[in-house]
Amino acid sequence: MINERVANFIKLQFSGKTILTLSFGNLREKENEESKEEDRSKRILVLNIICGTIISLIIRADLIVILGHLDRPYEVIGWDKELPKGFAWALLPFGCILTGCFISLGSKFWHDLLDLLLYTKQLKGKLVDARTYEQVNDIAQLQEFINAPEYKLSQLGVDKYRDNIKAIPGVLSVGTGYLKNGTSQIGCVEVHVIDAVGATHIPKELSVQLSAGGTVKIPVKVVVTGKQAETNSADAGKGVYNRSGVLGRGTIGAIVKDIYGDHFVLSCYHVLNGDLNWTRLSDSTDILDSNGASIAQLYFGFRTADMDVAIAKINNGVNFSNQQIRNPASIRSVYYDDVLRETEVNILGAKTGSIVNGFVYNDSWPAALKYPGNSLWELSDLIVLTRIDKTTNNYKTLTQGGDSGALVVDNKNFAIGIIVGGDNAFSYAIKLDKVAKSMDIKL
């Protein structure tokens, strides 16, 4: 934490020194006498609180106001936000002092507290799980089951049974998933099938053995997706495409820039590339917008086990903006917590033509996608997105052909992925933080 760094700097640089009439005393060396050590500890505590309060004032982190906006605390932190009015000005110093007191506790305290809260949440879920009392035989097995995160339990099932399940006719993909169990979620083996006929051959639960010897049953969740997942390319529709026209059209996900300040169009490799060769860039590099005007030149792209991305350098004189996608604040990673919270997302695809809202269904999923030319390619570690169809109460995709490359933005305006494909139930997105790191780009 910044507060710790500032306080440590003062302790190291000013210990034993006097500035004007202010004597810092000994801040570095532990005292042998108990009374002197207590005095030293008090001075360090006061120093931490003062530093924390000053930092809180600089960034205007008023704990009183923050507690009133726990759903969106970032909207009230900073002097660029709406300023307090009337009596709230008088409370501002007290709120910042309270913030200073809390952050003076140090990062270790908050990390330990977070670990404790997460463990308590997991323990609460395990205590209402019937498997806790039915499938373990001794204390060691019970302890291992309680300590095992749900995603690890589901991963054990996937690792053991994936190949056998994928051999069943009609099965498209197998991965880790989650089932609601009251107010919590438990890990499961999730199976996507083409139709209900394929679903009848899938077992309802699978048994896995833990290292302590206990056997645990992992539930199986079967989802009918209706068809093989396909890359979201189309022969017609607004968006972006390579002049060759071989791979159809897609969507400009975002305008990004590299470390040199050059700007690029970001989309999928199967949108911007100009031929069916997936191992190199095509000779056709001219990238056109939906009106057929040349806007960029294909610069770099690739398809790997977990990515299908490309960038095209914007031509001189071409105007560019991320305004239509609401200028995302930044890029962030997707976590298991997004699945538990069903984090809301929105997508603006060129083919769909309007913003579509949904939520994060899975944070890491393997999907075999049908590419132009009817070739299959499996991409792993994809974000799965969906919504609930109000008519049928089934899962419904957020995208359609021509939306490949569209940016996925969460409800706090952070970009998390780019659409690569979809079926009838789900849309699949590549993790944008991995793309940014691999290509050394940012919004």
How is the secondary structure organized here?
Blueprint: H1 2-14, E1 18-19, E2 22-23, H2 34-59, H3 63-67, H4 88-103, H5 107-127, H6 131-134, H7 139-147, H8 150-166, E3 171-181, E4 184-193, H9 196-199, E5 205-209, E6 215-224, E7 230-231, E8 240-242, E9 254-257, E10 263-267, H10 269-272, E11 286-289, E12 294-303, E13 308-314, E14 330-331, H11 336-341, E15 344-348, E16 355-371, E17 375-388, E18 395-396, E19 407-410, E20 414-422, E21 427-431, H12 432-439
Parallel strand pairs: 4-6, 14-20
Antiparallel strand pairs: 1-2, 3-4, 5-6, 7-20, 8-11, 9-10, 10-13, 11-12, 12-13, 15-16, 15-19, 16-17, 17-18, 17-21, 19-20, 20-21
Helix pairs in contact: 1-2, 2-4
Summarize the structure in words.
This protein is an alpha+beta fold and 443 residues long. The protein folds into 3 domains: 2-105, no CATH class; 131-221; 225-443, Trypsin-like serine proteases (Thrombin, subunit H, Beta Barrel). Helices cover 30% and strands 30% of the residues. The chain is built from 12 helices and 21 strands. The chain has helices spanning 2-14, 34-59, 63-67, 88-103, 107-127, 131-134, 139-147, 150-166, 196-199, 269-272, 336-341, 432-439; strands at residues 18-19, 22-23, 171-181, 184-193, 205-209, 215-224, 230-231, 240-242, 254-257, 263-267, 286-289, 294-303, 308-314, 330-331, 344-348, 355-371, 375-388, 395-396, 407-410, 414-422, 427-431. It has a 6-stranded antiparallel barrel. Helix 1 (2-14) crosses helix 2 (34-59). The radius of gyration is 27 Å and the shape is globular. It starts with a helix and ends with a helix. The mean pLDDT is 87. Keywords: Membrane, Transmembrane, Transmembrane helix. InterPro entries: Peptidase_S1_PA, Peptidase_S1_PA_chymotrypsin. The chain crosses the membrane at residues 45-67, 87-105.
